[in-house]
Every structure is written in C-alpha cells, then in structure tokens.
Request: fold
Amino acid sequence: MAIFNHRFSLWILLALPAVAMLSGYARGATEAMDLLHPSGEMSARLMIIAIAISPLISVLGPRKWLQWMAARRRALGVAAFAYALLHLGFYIIDMGNVPDMIAEVLAPGIWTGWAAFILMMVPAILSNDASMRALKARWKQLQRFVYPAAILTLLHWIWVHNNLGPALVHFIPLALIVALRAFKSFPQAKQGA
Amino acid sequence: MRTLSLLSLAGAAALAAIATPASATGAIKCQAGPASSWKTQDALKAKLIKEGWQVRKTKPDGGCYEVYGTTPEGDRVEAYFHPVTLEKLYVARRGEVLFRKKGY
Reply:
C-alpha cells in the first residue's frame, strides 16, 4: 500500500499520458496537430480536479479520499500546468513559425489560450514551499489566479472548436460544485456572525 | 442529499464524456451519397495547391472532406469541402468561422 501513497507513484501516473503522447510524436505515429486536443484536455481535466478538491470537502465534509486528494493537490495543479506547457509546445511545433502565430493571436480561440496559460503560470511557479513561506498570506491570493485561468480555459475550449458541448461537460460540474460550496458556506458565515 | 446530487452529476458528466466522440469535430455535414462516387482526397489536395493553398492534412469528416492548411490569404484554417464537387463549404480559423456556404 505504501507504494501507492508515495508521491513518486502519483508523479509517474500523472506523467504516463505525456509519455504516450511524446513517444507517439517521436515515433512519427502522431502529428503535433493531433496531440493538441489530448494535451489540452488533460491539462483542463487536471485543473478542474485540483480546483474541485477544496469545495468538495466543504460540500461533502471531510472524507478520506478527498483528504488523500487534498494532500496531492499541488502535484495535480503543477501537472495541469505541465500539460498546458506540452499543449503550447505542440501548438508551436504545429504552427512552425512566429509570424503565423502572431497572425492568429487575436482569434477568440487563441488569445484565450495564451491568457489562460499566462495566468496558470503564476500559481504553478509559486507551487513550492519556499514561495509559500516567502509570500505568506499573499500566496493564497496568487493561487486564486487559477480561477480566471479556468474561465479562460473554458472559453478557449469553446471557441477553438466552435462547440459548446465537450467544454461544458467538463466545466459545468466544477461550476456546480463551486456554487454548492457558496450555498453551504453562507449559513455557516451567518452562524459565526 | 448533496452527496446524491453530486454523484448523479458526476455520473451524468461521465456519460456525456463517453458519449461525445473525441475525434468527430463535425462542423458541418455533407449528404454526398456513397463514397464510391467521391473524388479522391489527392484530387482535392491537388486542386487546392493549384489555387494557392498549403495543405497539411486531409481526412473524411461528417461525410465531407476536412482539410487542415493555409489559405491563399495566409490564414491557418480548418476547411470542409464537398467530396463529389470539391466545392468549398466551410472555413474556420481556430473555431472562428470565416466562410460558410448557404445551406450548410
């Protein structure tokens, strides 16, 4: 059982899809273009899971599995960023040159992706103990960059495919969980006052 | 109650995720008859290159031919063509629709 709880086990598990994508690309079995969707989707899913853990604890109360997840939230969040980086890497390979990338940067499906990536970078870079100690209370505020990043990720997904379905399937559950927490914490705040 | 609603939510999301095919982008559909009467993807590619396109990839999608490439104007796009007439039906740049033939 200890092996499952070792942090390296989770890291390896989180890295497996990336290994599959990169080996497919290296072997020439898949093109960068075809890896845009899987890498982006993986990033969004991990981001959603990382964001959902704490509201789920508020809504469901302390559960063993949720606490197991909460203890690993940093790894999930950093992995979400790593997949965003991989996604961007495949995009750059697919585009092949900077002028083409600049030419489409204002397309709704593209600027939202760039903006989401830049916002995600902040909590990702600060996801270490040294930053936590150095920034104290501000650290938590800076981690909240992930919320606008999530909204931009949702818009990026919708616009780049010109399709609501798959993006909403992923983000509506997260929105509902966050909304449920707001409902639940409201009466508690009243009791405290 | 909350647990129940959350569980059903998660279930619904999982179902929807399974039911949504990842590959079929399906921006438009062509009712072009049996594939035996279709022109080849190579014929489409040759026609587009002649018109000044750069073609990176072609594949059948939604009964049409879907092309990833660069237009003569230099836009990186995803475009759909009728597989029999090879007529341009739909052009989108990163999901932003640049052209859509009436009726499609």
Residues 189-193 of chain A have pLDDT under 50 and may be disordered. Chain A touches chain B through 31 residues (CB under 8 Å).
